[in-house]
Write a structure and sequence with these properties.
single chain, mainly alpha, Fumarase C, Chain B, domain 1, Fumarase C, Chain A, domain 2, 2 domains, three-stranded antiparallel β-sheet, 9 strands, 5% strand, histidine ammonia-lyase activity, Phe/His_NH3-lyase_AS, Fumarase/histidase_N, HutH
Amino acid sequence: MAIGAVEVGVVRVGMGPVSRDEVVAVARHDARVTLAPDALAALAATRQRIEALAVADRPVYGVSTGFGALATRHIPGDRRVDLQRSLIRSHAAGSGPEVEREVVRAMMLLRLSTLATGRTGVRPVVAETYAALLNAGITPIVHEFGSLGCSGDLAPLAHCALAVMGEGFVRDAGGERRAAGAALRDAGIEPVTLAEKEGLALINGTDGMLGQLILAGHDLAALLTTADITAAMSVEALLGTPRVFAPDLQALRPQPGQAAGARVIAAMLDGSEIAAGHADDECPIVQDAYSLRCAPQVSGAARDTLAHCCWVAENELASAIDNPVVTLDGRVESNGNFHGAPVAYALDFLAIPVADVASMSERRTDRLLDVKRSHGLPPFLAGDPGVDSGHMILQYTQAGIVSELKRLAVPASVDSIPSSAMQEDHVSMGWAAARKLRRALDGLTRVLAGEALSAARALELRERRPAPATAAVRDRIRQVVDGVGPDRFLAPEIEAVVELVRDGALIAAAERITGPLE
């Protein structure tokens, strides 16, 4: 999924980290990649150290030994090119559906960023070839299963390295599945014959799960703003009060995300005749239900969780993850930085608020549809209740998704299955956490779209004018979905609003009235 746009024309990969926005730009918007001179110089300097070790007598992991549980096997000099090639071929063992293009591109950029630190020992040509594939729009085919999130995202990254070698399969810039060798040849890219250490350096990273964390963080930030927009629409449509979102009340509990959410809802409700009617003496509502009154507490807690996970991502972007790694003083040392626990926990953590924000949204939708709780709205917002069922089954769809999101909130990172003959006896399962979070974000998008569709219809059924901002969102929905009337084929209408949520159109409609929303 993709929410919003990041405008970065060229991403310059140097010894410092790329930014989260740059990752999104390359992954989703095909921003071009260049290698900075300092990175190329660092690559060349560190490579000299690896080449010196390659002819030395003492064994060095990844240079003159086997891998994993086979690390005790000494590899003679004339077999070390075979060693690297065999490593990539054997580790490109993924299975299942293809992984999304944006995920593979993010993963390749992040591996390139680590190579550019000069800490992995690869030659400049390896990094240049990764950049060339990205710029040519050539995307290695990576499969759903194959990473345990420890020793790096081994199989996914191996499929990328296999393509750099001119083997395996890719999608070209037009999306056609092709043999990698032919695609590289047509793009004028020379396949790389991997030298000592290089195969290992291309697969020992958390780049797959990190790329998905960055993409998820970008999407969730927009979805939380959307959740506050739809909450405001529901508060208004259900004759709720905006007074609970006042800054002084929110300041009594100084959680930063909560304050931000309350500001969005208050801005959306500014100038509402409907909400103002809550203060009438004839209004029977004493205080609103939790799904209305506590909306910023939930979306705000999600924001604060996201802030923590973005901090984890920033730390990971500043890392040079490989094993062994070439230190600043020239040592080649084994380490455990490839373990995916920090990223895996963040990915699992985000799945919890995703499920909860969706759960609250579904509860608001259900309230809009229930004649006993909707304060004068027709049953199920139907045009002719009884003959028409209105949005009755829309809520069923939301409920099914929310139930699935609760299952997806169960953490993957608490599991571990030993591998590599017990050498790798504890793994993070971070890749699995990333894959389920992507599905969860898609579910949240659909639930919020359902609420927006129902709230827009409910606002039309009120006699008083809504706030200018909520009216703008309603009108944007009306550009793709008709208003109240006889029952229609509902699935295409839901999907049309899903696309409005996904591409940020509802936020854009609101911000034309409110200015930038947090």
